[in-house]
From TrEMBL, chains A, B, C:
Protein species of origin: Streptomyces lavendulae subsp. lavendulae
Highest taxon of source: Bacteria
Swiss-Prot/TrEMBL keywords: Plasmid
Coiled coil stretches, renumbered: none
Residues of the SnoaL-like domain: 20-147
Name this polypeptide is given: SnoaL-like domain-containing protein
Pfam families: SnoaL_4
Length: 156, 156, 156
């Protein structure tokens, strides 16, 4: 955020999206993150496109490329969490949706990552800004690109 | 979450609900939890059906059965919080709504429970998954069954 | 919250607002708070009316009066956060919207204030109840009055 930051961000005059679209995306995220948190890594992977790119700058050396890589990663994650007896929740909110010229959606949201070990205390440990490109595939939204920025990891 | 967990959860192909219904349920929860947090135990109890069942496996030995029991419990709760000078907030989000064949709704949401003692620090102490059965009574939604699962209390 | 608290709060029978209005206000807040969190104090100030009043009883000796005062305050805030290398997030939810007779909206929401210093831990440090009066100016919502109550600061 340098002194050359414009005083008005790009797209701030974009119209709001209709209620049907907005609530579809809200429901998409509630179900998508529920699949991960409930331990369904395969169904979770199916919410990404075949060629999806999953970036998490401060956590992954390289982006995950493709649904198979996302599935493998989330299966391994599930085993780790079960071994450590951890309940994990991903909470998204403050959703902003911008339709793009190609029919895809840019969805920005805030996310909190939290975990509770069995018998332990709730630990809300990360605030993350999530930028998704959502595309419609056979009538259902899928994530084609996900880009996660962890607060505290340095300016983007 | 055993190895026999299916790779796809039941109901993952259910259509999303229309915006009017989704935002009605969002508003229902904002007002319902607001009644509890603002110290209106009687009005809170009236958001449950006469024969509502309120389960909280890790906190209650027995479910609360009926609106009268819910009212008594929340009146006692209010006195405790006032004596301890605690502001309490229940924050629900990540809402997923599934209409049932009998006209009721299954609503799942994530909930955070948090408290602040007068002059003290914010303490967000529990992540909970809330499963409600909502029924329409004279045009208004009421909770007929609430089942709360606290993270960290063991697999359901 | 004395013994004279009525058992039912004012307005609890108000109808829910239509989905289009509810999701417009959700989107308004996602973008508005995003402007502040992303470091656009001027665009943030433009989401308030020229004569807006910004109250924060437990943090401000005097309300901020007018868009210019809000802009100055948020510019100073941005400099402080940059100097301290802090990512700040304002998360609003549990939104309740009540249309008023004069065409304005009373919007109540819960808010969490959180910060992460570069390389540091997430600190969710305040739970706040936000009461806004929103007015429509040339087709866009603006905040005419904002009244913030921090939990733990004493009964209102």
């Amino acid at each position: 955020m340098s002194d050359s930051t414009p005083s008005t961000p790009r797209g701030s005059a974009d119209p709001f999206v209709p209620a049907e679209l907005y609530t579809q995306v809200q429901q998409f995220y509630a179900r998508q993150m529920g699949l991960l948190d409930d331990g369904f890594p395969d169904a979770w992977a199916d919410t990404f496109t075949e060629d999806a790119v999953f970036q998490e700058a401060s956590r992954l050396d390289e982006p995950l490329r493709g649904r198979d890589a996302i599935r493998d990663s989330s299966r391994a994650r599930k085993k780790r969490l079960e071994a450590e007896e951890i309940d994990f929740r991903h909470w998204l909110g403050m959703l902003d949706v911008r339709p793009q010229a190609d029919g895809s959606l840019h969805a920005r949201s805030y996310a909190l990552a939290m975990r509770t070990r069995r018998g332990g205390e709730l630990d809300i440990f990360a605030s993350v800004v999530c930028h998704d490109r959502l595309v419609s595939v056979e009538g259902a939204w899928q994530v084609a690109e996900r880009d996660l920025h962890h607060d505290g990891s340095g300016r983007d």
